[in-house]
Amino acid sequence: MSYLQKILIFGNAAAGKSTLAKKIAKKQGLAHLDLDTLAWLATSPPQRKRLSDSAIEIDNFTQQHSSWVIEGCYSDLLELLTSNNAADHDNVKNKAFANEIIFLDIAINRCITHAENRSWEAHKYPSKQAQDDNLAMLIDWIKAYETRSDTFSKQAHQQLYTRFVGKKNIITSID
Hints:
The protein is of the alpha/beta class. It has helices at 17-28, 51-64, 75-79, 108-117, 128-133, 135-143, 154-163, and strands spanning 6-11, 31-34, 40-41, 47-48, 68-71, 100-104, 167-171.
């Protein structure tokens, strides 16, 4: 039986999660899911979907793909894919738990540089201008990573990393 890879990648905004996930997915033939594509309602200003709604979409993805790489900054969604608290996650039916995690613990100033230089993300923004219009807010968000205490924070990511039982890596430099 072949080894099924199920990899989670997380870290601050603009840490390089999507870039790394795309490289791994291409190199290893894995399905790729960017959690940004299912975590938000199409409202202005954006609002998070209910956790249970996002969980259903994650479950659908993992049922369709036996090997995958999933990336995002949402520790609450990522936790659904770990066996840390399986009893708490009955809404994820197939229990397609990750067997590897990668925590991109990239310096704040490097994340800001990535955000300033990122190409247009057509799956997130209707235009490059719309993405650029959001840059100041994104940079403020990146800067607050170490002081926030929400599901997107460094604190939440460190807790997810610490609790995970399985193969895990912290990457502190990426280009």
